[in-house]
């Protein structure tokens, strides 16, 4: 469950925050976007009350998660529980596991938090390059986030699979 807040100060952890910013209502919410490693003092000093991770390369410490009361979400380019960790699209191809995208709560494990939203994806052209597939999967994840991010803030979260 995500806490209902009047005003949200997001921390967007991503090398490409510009992909997600059009989805966030910047009139109602504040945000910081960085890609550096963070700690508990950063969260407290900046007054962050919700975190979104998208292609972020660092693992968040338990102290960071505790300071957010676990109001932290990860946008992951796999259909979890398949292909946890880095390079999930490549592993999906190599291991012939389902392709998809997942938004999940961040817990102390590696991509093990409660799944909030998922969408299974299908390759319409078997000749797509890895780069094309990477762009397709990331765009689908951004689209899912744009459609669903407010639910994370304003209501109880239940897993929702989108076909």
Describe the protein's topology.
Elements: E1 9-13, E2 30-34, H1 40-46, E3 50-54, H2 62-67, E4 72-76, H3 88-95, E5 99-105, E6 115-121, H4 130-154, E7 160-162
Parallel strand pairs: 1-2, 1-3, 3-4, 6-7
Antiparallel strand pairs: 4-5, 5-6
Briefly characterize the structure.
The protein is α/β, with parallel strands linked by helices and 163 residues long.
Molecular structure report:
- By secondary structure, the chain is α/β, with parallel strands linked by helices.
- It has one domain (9-162): Rossmann fold, CATH 3.40.50.
- It is 28% helix and 23% strand.
- Strand 6 (115-121), helix 4 (130-154) and strand 7 form a beta-alpha-beta unit.
- The longest helix has 25 residues, at 130-154.
Features:
4 helices, single chain, 7-stranded mixed sheet, Rossmann fold, 163 residues, alpha/beta, disordered N terminus, 28% helix
């Amino acid at each position: 469950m995500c806490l209902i807040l009047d005003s949200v100060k997001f921390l967007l952890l991503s090398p490409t925050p510009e992909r997600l910013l059009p989805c966030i209502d910047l009139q109602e919410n504040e945000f910081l976007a960085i890609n550096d490693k963070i700690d508990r003092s950063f969260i407290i000093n900046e007054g962050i009350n919700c975190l979104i991770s998208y292609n972020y390369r660092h693992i968040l410490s338990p102290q960071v998660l505790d300071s957010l009361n676990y109001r932290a979400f990860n946008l992951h380019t796999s259909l979890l529980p398949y292909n946890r960790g880095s390079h999930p699209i490549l592993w999906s191809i190599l291991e012939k596991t389902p392709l998809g995208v997942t938004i999940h709560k961040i817990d102390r494990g590696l991509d093990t938090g409660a799944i909030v939203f998922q969408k299974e994806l299908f390759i319409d052209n078997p000749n797509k390059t890895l780069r094309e597939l990477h762009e397709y999967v990331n765009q689908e994840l951004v689209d899912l986030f744009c459609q669903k991010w407010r639910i994370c803030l304003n209501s109880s979260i239940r897993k929702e699979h989108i076909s």
